[in-house]
Specification:
Layout (H helix, E strand, L loop, with lengths): L1 H4 L1 H17 L3 H22 L1 H6 L2 H10 L1 H17 L1 H6 L1 H22 L1
Helix pairs in contact: 2-3, 3-6
């Protein structure tokens, strides 16, 4: 049931637990890091696209984020890595990240139109 509700987080959690078990690392620390990574990726991506989210209805925004969950996490992963390891560089590249989010949004819209 957890996988149906949060498939990305559940996948990350399973991978982290396997890595912790295989490498004999503190699983509690890995789970904490995985949770922070997931929520940072998700919320950073959603925040970058909030101008689009404000223009559509809440139902459409929820449907969009649910349909593109994996892409949003993939987009947010480099942002999380920059924020975690090089926060100064993250701040310097923030405007570039905003531009990249617009490009991602246009690609997702074009892919949706082609699919219909």
């Amino acid at each position: 049931k957890l996988f149906k509700v949060y498939p990305v987080f559940t996948t990350i959690l399973i991978v982290v637990m396997l890595v912790g078990w295989l490498c004999h690392v503190d699983v509690k620390l890995l789970v904490k890091t995985a949770g922070l990574m997931y929520y940072s990726c998700t919320y950073l991506s959603a925040e970058m696209m909030m101008t689009y989210g404000e223009r559509v209805s809440p139902e459409q925004w929820k449907k969009f984020t649910k349909a593109n969950r994996w892409r949003l996490v993939g987009f947010g992963l480099p942002l999380w890595a920059l924020l975690e390891f090089l926060p100064v560089l993250f701040v310097l590249l923030l405007q570039l990240s905003n531009g990249a989010s617009v490009k991602l949004l246009s690609d997702l819209s074009a892919a949706r139109r082609r699919a219909q």
